[in-house]
Design brief:
Low-confidence stretches: none
Radius of gyration: 17 Å
Helix content: 25-40%
Number of helices: 7
Number of domains: 1
CATH topology: NADH Oxidase
Length: 181
């Protein structure tokens, strides 16, 4: 048995090529997100796709400085939800897990298509909501960049090092507890 290749290869890359991503590929990524499981099938996500360079440029103004590299990506998908849009069981915020599952499906589909995908935290929510006309009751859960891998020349030294550093993971025995803690 072997782990899925897409899981092994997935990483949050920051070096994007200036190559357009086809609408067919974007639709496959969105379909992967749409097919994610969600608590009580509430599907608490909405996706705002920014492919037009002018729309992305305007939205990019709301990004934090640490996400400078995302401005090179040809596709930005803003994932939004309402805090009451998901499953109300146990008064837990299941909608956030649901969004995480949808985004992971999208990231794995991107890897399958030989694309990079990188979910982020770091934007001015009010500014981005205003720019994209997002209704007041919605929250931005994440901004995900997609595109073909590119040259690292525009990355900071720190990010170049992270791009070359591999996927460090905690040892299995540090994170697993069989039959109890």
């Amino acid at each position: 048995m072997k782990l899925l290749e897409e899981i092994e290869k997935r990483h949050s890359g920051r070096a994007y090529a200036n190559t357009p991503v086809s609408d067919d590929m974007i639709e496959l990524i969105l379909e992967a997100g749409r097919r994610a499981p969600s608590c009580a099938n509430t599907q608490a996500w909405n996706f705002i796709i920014l492919k037009d360079s002018q729309a992305r440029d305007k939205a990019n103004e709301a990004l934090s400085g640490g996400n400078y590299w995302g401005k090179k990506a040809p596709v930005m998908i803003v994932v939004v939800t309402t805090p009451d849009g998901g499953c109300p069981a146990h008064k837990l915020p299941y909608f956030m897990m649901d969004i995480g599952l949808a985004v992971e499906n999208m990231l794995l589909q991107a890897v399958h298509l030989k694309l990079l995908g990188h979910p982020t935290a770091g934007w001015n929510e009010e500014s981005l909501k205003e720019t994209l006309n997002i209704p007041e009751e919605y929250r931005i859960a994440t901004v995900v960049f997609f595109g073909y891998p590119g040259d690292m020349e525009h990355l900071s030294d720190k990010h170049k090092e992270q791009e070359n550093g591999g996927l460090d993971r905690k040892p299995m025995d540090e994170i697993t507890h069989w039959d109890g803690w």
